[in-house]
Each structure stands twice: as structure tokens, then as C-alpha cells.
Design brief:
Number of helices: 12
CATH superfamily of the largest domain: NAD(P)-binding Rossmann-like Domain
CATH topology of the largest domain: Rossmann fold
CATH class of the largest domain: Alpha Beta
Number of domains: 2
Strand order of the largest sheet: 3-2-1-4-5-6
Largest sheet: 6 strands, parallel
Number of strands: 9
Distance between the termini: 27 Å
Order of helices and strands: EHEHEHEHEHEEEHEHHHHHH
Length: 304
């Protein structure tokens, strides 16, 4: 790939996702400058100390002037914040700026974006590129960001019918510079797939830890929990705010997956209760074979 340069980047939400993107681009000398905008001064100070951003503002500051010569705006906040941010961004941003998001749901984000762009006809929806980087850890904030987060990871682009192919190509190139592989999906397919392979696993991990933590003798369970529990529940340490927003935004698809999983649990319970050796072994073998065939890093998406 020929060397890419993306000019001035503004990142809303300088945490693991937005901060890692900014750091990767800065280390590759692919941006002229990065401006970070976020909720807390302490996190933004950490972002500046680590070199993730060149300048930083809280949401309460006056940052509109920074938008006037921005080339790319990345919304890496919890998805519930995107409506308020776009409402404030669009009147100030230049007409040439490309706006993209990094949200884990797409249909609701797109619906919000359509409403915001309709209210500000000076700028074009053609410059909005919905995206979802499939990468992450259980940690958050600027302190958790690292430049290699996206290497050999997938980024899903869900362009609208109105989205400019040139803008899509620019955002695709940005993530490729970060080390990612680009895939394209429709917004509906994206939300269906990730309800099953990402949103459901997070809800299950949260639910298991919450159930154990609610017990009067929770301490003894956590004391003796081993590597299996650790691996299964690692993602329950993720941001509750972010996952609340994702659950509500992708509610219908997630409920379908919860119902399907509940049916599977019910069948599993029956097989155990009835000592159904054939049924239980077949179920466990099917799962074991499928898991062994799939391996992270093989080109299939990690969950986020």
C-alpha cells in the first residue's frame, strides 16, 4: 500500500478504541495532528502525556473551531452519545470532512445520523461512513490504548446508499494503516451477526459474574475460580456504560439471541437431568468440533 496521509484527525472519545487508532496513525506518520475530545480532563491529560493527541478538550469546552479544518472526525464514544455529538459537530464541521464512527451497533447509529444530517443540510450524508473495528480488551481509557491493537484485526464498514465511495475508501485506508483488514456488510447483517458473536457473549459474562457476586458467600466462589472462569468472564470487566448502550441499541437482535440461548440451556438442563448420555455427548462434541475448527487470528472476527 502506498503511504497514506489523512491530515487533521479529531477523535471524540480518547479511550482504548479511539486512542489506539490515533496512536497507530501517529506512529505511522499518517496524520498531521490529532485533537482529542472527551468527558474527563484526567483522561485527556493522560492521552496528551502518552502522545495520543496533540491538543485536548472536554465535551464542555469550546472546541467547534477545531472542526473547521478537520479532515476526518472519528466518533469513538459510547453509541448513546452520538446523537448529541453530531448535533453539535455538524453545524461547525467543514463540508469536506469525513465523519465515521466506531460503534458496535450500526442500524441505530445510522438512523441517528440521518436525522442529524437532515437537520443540517449544509453538510452531506455522503461524507458519513459507519464502521466497526473488531478489536478490544477489557480495559478502557487512554491508559489502555496501544498502537498495535488493530493489527490483523477486522474492521467492518457498513456504507449507506448515499455514502461516497471516495469517503469509504479513505476510511478503509485509515484502518488499513492501523493494520486492520476491511470487510463490508449491510447494517442489518452486521447487527444480526454481532448480536450473536459479541453482544450475547458479553451479556452472558456479565450475567454469570453478577449472579455469583449477588450470593452471600460470593467470596469463596471467586477465591477458588480458575482459568476457565477467568477466560469466560474476562469481558465482564468491560465498560458497563458502553455495553448497556449496545444492548439497548441492538435490542431486538440481542433478545432473539438470548431466547435462542435460553432454549439451548433448557435442552442442556434436560439432558443432564435425564442423564441423556447420547444427547449430551452429541451436543458437547458438536460444540467442541466447531470451536476447534474456528481459531482467533484465522481471519474470522474477534468479539468486541
Amino acid at each position: 500500500m502506498e503511504k497514506q496521509h489523512f491530515g487533521k484527525l479529531i477523535v471524540f472519545g480518547v479511550g482504548l478504541i479511539g486512542g489506539s487508532c490515533a496512536l497507530a496513525l501517529k506512529e505511522k506518520h499518517a496524520v498531521r495532528e490529532v485533537v482529542g475530545i472527551g468527558r474527563t480532563r484526567a483522561n485527556l491529560d493522560k492521552a496528551r502525556q502518552r502522545g495520543l493527541v496533540d491538543r485536548a478538550f472536554t465535551f464542555d469546552d469550546a472546541w467547534e473551531d477545531e472542526l473547521r479544518d478537520a479532515d476526518i472526525v472519528l466518533l469513538a464514544t459510547p453509541v448513546a452519545q452520538i446523537d448529541a455529538l453530531l448535533t453539535r459537530i455538524l453545524p461547525a464541521v467543514s463540508e469536506k470532512a469525513i465523519i465515521s464512527d466506531a460503534g458496535s451497533t450500526k442500524q441505530n447509529v445510522i438512523a441517528v445520523a440521518r436525522g442529524c444530517y437532515r437537520a443540517e443540510p449544509r453538510v452531506s450524508l455522503a461524507n458519513f461512513v459507519p464502521a466497526h473495528p473488531i478489536a478490544g480488551t477489557e480495559h478502557s481509557g487512554a491508559a489502555a490504548a496501544f498502537a498495535t491493537l488493530y493489527e490483523n484485526k477486522n474492521v467492518i464498514i457498513t456504507p449507506l446508499a448515499e455514502t461516497s465511495p471516495e469517503c469509504t475508501a479513505t476510511i478503509s485506508a485509515l484502518w488499513q494503516v492501523c493494520g486492520a483488514t476491511i470487510h463490508t456488510m449491510s447494517p442489518a447483517q452486521h447487527d444480526t451477526v454481532f448480536a450473536a458473536v459479541s453482544h450475547l457473549p458479553h451479556m452472558l459474562a456479565f450475567a454469570l459474574v453478577a449472579e455469583l457476586a449477588s450470593r452471600p458467600d460470593a467470596g469463596i466462589f471467586f477465591q477458588y475460580a480458575g482459568s476457565g472462569f477467568r477466560d469466560f468472564t474476562r469481558i465482564a470487566a468491560s465498560s458497563p456504560e458502553m455495553w448497556r448502550d449496545i444492548a439497548f441499541d441492538n435490542r431486538d437482535a440481542l433478545i432473539r439471541e438470548l431466547d435462542a440461548f435460553a432454549r439451548m440451556l433448557s435442552e442442556l438442563r434436560s439432558e443432564i437431568e435425564e442423564k441423556n448420555n447420547t444427547g449430551l455427548m452429541q451436543r458437547l462434541q458438536t460444540a467442541s468440533d466447531a470451536r476447534r475448527r474456528w481459531a482467533p487470528g484465522s481471519g474470522k472476527p474477534d468479539t468486541n
